[in-house]
Amino acid sequence: MAIREAREAREAKATLAGLSREQLFDMHYKMVLLRRFEEKAAEEYTLGKIGGFLHLYIGQEASGVGTFSALQPDDYVLSAYREHGYAILKGLDPKAVMAELFGKATGGSKGKGGSMHMWSNEHHLLGGQAIVGGQLVMAAGLGIAIQYQNEKRIALALFGDGAVDEGAFHEALNLASVWKLPVVFLCENNQYSMGMAVTKAWAVPSLEPRAAGYGMPYLKVDGMDTLAVREAMLEARERAVSGGGPTLIESLTYRFRGHSMADPAYYRTREEEKLWKTTRDPIALFEDKLKEAGLMADRDISATNDRVDAEVAEYARFANESPDPTIDDLYADVTVDGRGAIAWRTKPSTPRE
Ligand SMILES: Cc1ncc(C[n+]2csc(CCOP(=O)(O)OP(=O)(O)O)c2C)c(N)n1
Ligand SMILES: [Mg+2]
Prior knowledge:
Layout: H1 2-13, H2 21-46, H3 61-69, E1 76-79, H4 84-89, H5 94-101, E2 125-128, H6 134-148, E3 155-160, H7 167-178, E4 183-189, E5 192-193, E6 196-197, H8 198-201, H9 208-213, E7 218-222, H10 226-241, E8 247-252, H11 270-279, H12 282-292, H13 298-321, H14 339-346
Parallel strand pairs: 1-2, 1-3, 3-4, 4-8, 7-8
Antiparallel strand pairs: 5-6
Helix pairs in contact: 2-3, 2-12, 2-13, 3-10, 5-13, 6-7
The protein binds thiamine diphosphate (TPP) and magnesium ion (MG).
């Protein structure tokens, strides 16, 4: 008993990166949740319960969890379509995220957004965008609003390596820098944009010269190290809210699955995938770190896995049993006052030529 108590007292006092054991366990739990949630989503997709596109974030969990652990609830977040995890991390009920994937009325976007369009006004999550790079200019716009209203919050744009070669990236970074907007640009470089390897797409191997081109601070971080990502994000956020302007962060990571469920990934080798999965799995790396620090034991990991498995099964049950949106729901939320939708609905249809 005395030994156990001594161990518990030691664990309670131990920290890593200035975080308590409870906070570190929470980060670990969230990484496992994101992984298992999407493994379940992939299973349901295969069963035909989820339609359309499904882009999984599996392999990139450390980047998301570290990033969101550094945000405040009022911060705006905009992202691309690989965003189921962001929605959960921003505070949406995972049940509503799963139901959204199923296209059910109980989904966060009432079943009308689907995988690529997670949204929550309450949690300041403004998409889930399908247009590569679109979120960067929107984040700059929000940055102007924040600055104009003198608020202490940021707009965070998460995007992939593929967005860097869009014009929107350059427009957004330039204006954000000129006007010192409270925006953080976080590139999750998972080394592929669909089938295009970043090594073939970028004329320079890092984002550093691009950030320099816009006079913007640049931070490169190991995206498989959740605490390193958190530190970078804390620094960038602090700079943004204290008037120092935007930061470009490059978080180097790897997606373990194809671009979407439909992608057989012929453009890279199975050996390369195996190497990342066996030596750079962000969850395993974090578990090793916590174990080394004497903060976590195998039984803690099993307990978290069991807890998450039960939770995820419940989210899938909820989504399965939820109702579909009705035909009338199709006409709701089309315009702010609903009138446009009614007019559109009652307009006589024009015969096709
Ligand atoms: C403006 C635009 N061009 C092309 C596409 C087609 N497209 C969809 S995803 C994608 C790849 C984006 O890759 P990246 O930004 O690296 O994000 P990742 O999928 O790796 O997370 C492309 C080219 C699109 N959706 N929007
Ligand atoms: Mg990519």
